[in-house]
Amino acid sequence: MSQRNNDPPRVVFEGKFQRMVVRGTWEYSERTHAGGLAAIIIAVTPQDHVLFVEQFRVPLQARTIEMPAGLVGDIDAGESIEISAVRELEEETGWTAEHAEVLMIGPTSSGASSEKIAFVRATGLTRVGAGGGDDSEDITVHEIPRAQAAAWLVQKIAEGYELDAKLWAGLWMIDHHLDGTPRG
């Protein structure tokens, strides 16, 4: 039997960034900005350090470790994924990139949200500031040697941090093309 539901969606709540929708038996959230897309930025400094950000996330009531990320089109609806990714990278980490490449786009939590995420590889990094996010954010930047990144993340789990599961995909994408072949 098909799980497809052709009932019209009914908005039960709408805020600045999200709305809650009911469609038949499904309840889910949608992003309200242009495209409903976010970008996660995979960035390695010239010193071969992976950039991670730490911040308190209200829904989890916990500090998290993530790769830099942000909404696409929340500032300018016509902004490309690549430009949004570089802007978020600078804002959150204090690093900018000469080049940003979209590797893939897919759903973040297909059973709970219509949001999609773009994995973006940022290269040609240069430090331009301190990072830390905008006035509404309290971000700590971590620059971890790539060879130690996985072990550092496991240690953060042991310390009680919540880790974004997309971190592991991002680490893999540093060194691989999507077909699994090594980047060279």
Report on the architecture of this protein.
This protein has 184 residues and is α+β, with helices and mostly antiparallel strands. It folds into two domains: 1-32, no CATH class; 33-174, Nucleoside Triphosphate Pyrophosphohydrolase. Helices cover 18% and strands 40% of the residues. It is built from three helices and eleven strands, in the order βββββββαβββαβα. It has helices spanning 81-93, 149-158, 166-175; strands at 10-14, 18-23, 26-31, 37-43, 49-57, 62-66, 69-71, 95-107, 116-127, 140-145, 162-163. The strands form three sheets. It has a four-stranded mixed sheet with strand order 7-4-9-8. β2 (18-23) and β3 form a beta hairpin.
